[in-house]
Specification:
Layout (H helix, E strand, L loop, with lengths): L2 H21 L6 H19 L10 H25 L1
Helix pairs in contact: 1-2, 1-3, 2-3
C-alpha cells in the first residue's frame, strides 16, 4: 500500500468519524478514536449497504458518505451495548 493510499484512508476515517460523532451526539472519542470509528464504519457499511441495494458514487466524497453511514450504525450499536 502506497503512502498516499494510507493517508487517504486515515483522512476519510477521521472525517467520517467526526461527522458520525456530530450526528450521534455525546460520543466523541478524540482524533484517534474518530479515525478508528470511521475506518471500521466504512467496513460495516461495505457489508451492510450493498445488501440493502444502496450504491453511493465513487471518489473521496462518496467514500466519506459511505464511511459516515457505517460509523453512525457502529455508534448506535456501541450505544446499545453500553446500555445493556
Amino acid at each position: 500500500m502506497a503512502l498516499e493510499s494510507l493517508l487517504i484512508i486515515l483522512l476519510v476515517g477521521a472525517v467520517a468519524g467526526w461527522l458520525a460523532g456530530l450526528i450521534v451526539k455525546g460520543y466523541g472519542y478524540g482524533l484517534l478514536g474518530n479515525i478508528v470509528i470511521g475506518i471500521v464504519g466504512a467496513f460495516v457499511a461495505g457489508l451492510i449497504l450493498p445488501r440493502l441495494g444502496l450504491n453511493i458514487g465513487g471518489g473521496i466524497a462518496g467514500s466519506i458518505v459511505y464511511a459516515t453511514i457505517g460509523a453512525v450504525i457502529l455508534l448506535f450499536v456501541i450505544r446499545l451495548i453500553k446500555r445493556a
